[in-house]
Amino acid sequence: MKREEPQAAAKTNQALMARRRAAMPRGSGQVHEVFVERALDAEVWDVEGRRYIDFAGGIAVLNTGHRHPKVVQAVRDQLDRFSHTCFQVLAYEPLVELAEALNARAPGPGPWKTFFMTTGAEAVENAIKLARSHTRRSGVIAFSGGFHGRTMFTLSLTGKVSPYKVGFGPFMPEVFHALFPSRLHGISVQDSLDSIEHIFKSEIEAERVAAIIVEPVQGEGGFHVAPTEFLQALRALCDRHGIVLIADEIQSGSGRTGKWFAIEHSGVAPDLVTMAKSLAGGFPLSGVLGRAEIMDSAGPGGLGGTYAGNPLAAVAALAVLRVFEEEKLLARAQVVGARLRGALEAIARRHKSVGEVRGLGAMVAMELFRDGRMDAPDGDLSKRLVSEAARRGLILLPCGQHNNVIRLLVPITASDAILDEGLGILAASYDAVAGGA
Ligand SMILES: Cc1ncc(COP(=O)(O)O)c(C=O)c1O
Question: 163: CA distance to ligand 1 center in Å?
Fold first, then answer.
């Protein structure tokens, strides 16, 4: 009997949304009700032929833009050779070359080693495994507002309950949250360090803590930049107690802030670094870079994964590194960042609802409050801004504890013309939704 094919629905965003809602669970959210047909650098076209400027970059994955021609070429060439062998079964040179290249970029004196997985959460999971096997301790300290992933351990580390943790507990034992410093929210570096000392007094002794994991710039948490003196103090604390310092650079790394790793701005050398997102220019790849003695603490077979370090993603990442050199993208990130910051500050001068513009390099955000009252985070305004901008052809992304932060993650490769066009839409959209306030 002939199998009945599902009816081909009209290719509209609305029709596809209806199919998506019927076929896929609501738990996997969607910021924009838009279905993409194609994309190039910082531009996206939907199934209805509408063009958007992309300031979301697939959540920090497209520092080198959509389909950078050199990344595409590298993947195409690799596709003609082989697409999968499983590195633990039959290895391939590009992944070794990538480890060598990243070790050479490590934020501090070596020797360093790197190994690869597929998602950011996997990288964090493995960094914790390595910290535990190296120290033979169990405790892990993370920070409020931090985001480290959606697997059960990384979710336990994540310091934001709604929407990530709701209904999924109980979480892993031996995970503790300290306060992340934020001048705007009245948490000083000393408050934050005191909260760690409080954990040592009331929850777990320092000698049983394996790792402290920190984002040098909090991503989902709202683009809060960790002050240099805070990172220095964490380093000193970890040295004092034999704790492994993990920098989660999954969102802040891969050149976004004008250095390959954001923590380089502070001069602090972590023990392990997690990487993912923009590492492979849009292909799924993550990694842990770390001090060799920690990286070698796991026995053979203790690390790995079927798809870990996929060859297509490996050659894409090598191409990304070449593109960064050839197009001087670290320097460009600073220029792009200054332009973004300038545009947000201009909005802040017109609207007291912008409580703060902050960031590092091209990782820039503004935080919104009702009537400029710092005790009234305005997630509603942020939501209206995101939909008004989309209506006008600009894709934005909110973040922060109250979803009241607008973060800009436009490709660093975007031209000045595209940046200005996008920033123009952003300003006009803000004026439209916030009125004269
Ligand atoms: C800092 C940080 N760590 C970990 C993750 C988890 O990465 P993934 O979604 O690839 O598992 C993210 C994702 O947003 C992140 O921003």
Answer: 15
